[in-house]
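Internal tracking record. Fields below are filled automatically when a chain is submitted to the structure queue. Please do not edit lines marked as system-generated. If the sequence contains nonstandard residues, flag them in the REMARKS field before resubmitting.
Queue: standard
Priority: normal
Entity type: single polypeptide chain
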Amino acid sequence: MNDRNTPLPDVPHVVTVGLPHLTRGFETADRLNLATHLKVHGPLAPVSGERLVALAEDVRLLGRGGAGFPFARKLRTVAKSAVRRGVQPVVVVNASEGEPACRKDTVLINRAPHLVLDGALLAAEALGARLLVVAVTRDSTEASLRDAFDERGLTDRRIRNRGIRARVVRTPERMVSGEASAVIRAVNGGPALPPGRRERAAESGVSGAPTLLSNAETYAQLAVAARLGPHRYARTGIPDEPGTVLLTVSGAVARPVVMEAPSGVPLSYVLRLAGAPPLPQGVLTGGYHGSWIDAHAAHDAAVSRASLSSFGGALGAGALLPIGAETCPLGESLRVANWLAAESAGQCGPCRLGLPAAAGGLSDVLDGGGQAALEALREVTQTAKGRGACKHPDGSVRFLLSALHAFTDDLAAHVLGGGCGRPTTGVLPLPAPVRHGARHQEGAASGEKLEVDWTLCQGHGLCADVVPELIRMGHDGFPAFADTSVPLHLHDRARRAVRRCPALALRLERSRAESTVIAPRKFLEQGRG
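SYSTEM-GENERATED OUTPUT FOLLOWS
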């Protein structure tokens, strides 16, 4: 089984069920350069705007980044907005994968970058766009993409490829950095964070121009559909959701895999191919903004939006994470809930305060808080839902509430008894701590945790004011800490919280593998300097 707390590799092993579409040629090369790509897939002729919209409608192409928005409707909106305003639109490929459970877009850019570029350039030509932007999060992805640009003669310095310039934008590996508005903000030169207000990229995106923004897999699917045509494309998968689906399967599996499978394939078959337990305790569907389903639903569901939704799950960005019977499912959910709270953009109350409170509420339930703790948890999740400046609070609350619904027996054992009796093995992947000397990654974990000496703590609460994403005040008047490594983007505030502790009770402590303890007095001396 996958090792405890092990992050997913950039490019996991790839498995194909049935005839490959997106992964065609993977058996011949680790990376399909332009020449190999054309041998495998063949040339692609330009398509007019009307024909491209019709194609997207005929194959029922939905966005593969999680929301599932109809691609044809995006195309129409961008085209109409560009004509009405008399400006050239922009095409953006969102290949930012800040979620630890997703690697499908990273695999596409690393191994089949030209398939993604085919779809993006097809859309750019149909819309009359002159700028193509691709947002990525990882070193390997950026390198493969820049090589692909060179192979095609794409550049941002001068127009060389059919009148289209191309840019690569790097975003940090954070959960919120892959949100559409965060990507647009990063392309415009700002931080890769949601702007705190609802904006439609199709109306005003990059530099205020109408912008077609979609996920990397969506553009790759468009390129496949353009080559096959709607009838051949629809021969694979189910009628309502034709084609294939890219899935990232991790958790309690033999090894993490990215799998291309026809829509409608039984979920149990996919899990079996990945080496999941024959009877998983439950499966997290759609990733860390998705939903848990129980073992019975996992047995009966198929891999499609409609089927998973009917069982309370979600296809989302295609992440599937089974867990075995040896771990506490609510403990696993708490680890992720703590991480989601620390991933807050810090721009609104439901995100900055609500998510830490929700994670703390689940911790209270697992610590024997009983029915009162459970009711308090339900109340805080309701207040956080639907009030955030971006989708992060809603997705995080959905994940947490689905755990309560999927694992009712375990919940009852924790609320009414002394717990389920199982440890939390940490099978769900989270980011790795940054090694000393490694390149600074804004969204990565620092490898340090906040610890407190309870013989000194006097419950002043100043630390919770400084970094509420990691510390909250408990019902007993003393601070409660998120059981998670401090993310690098919160590290400075964590240090400030240590310095502000008047009782010198708080410290930052490295993991057991890095046993150095950073004491509060050292911080006080640094602060004076």
